[in-house]
Amino acid sequence: MNKNPSRFSGKNLPVEMVSWLDAVKYCNARSKKEGLTPVYKISGRKVTWNQKANGYRLPTEAEWEYACRAGAATPFNTKTSISTKEANYGDYPYEIEDNYFNEDKLETKPGECQ
Question: Which pTM does this prediction carry?
Answer without folding.
Answer: 0.62
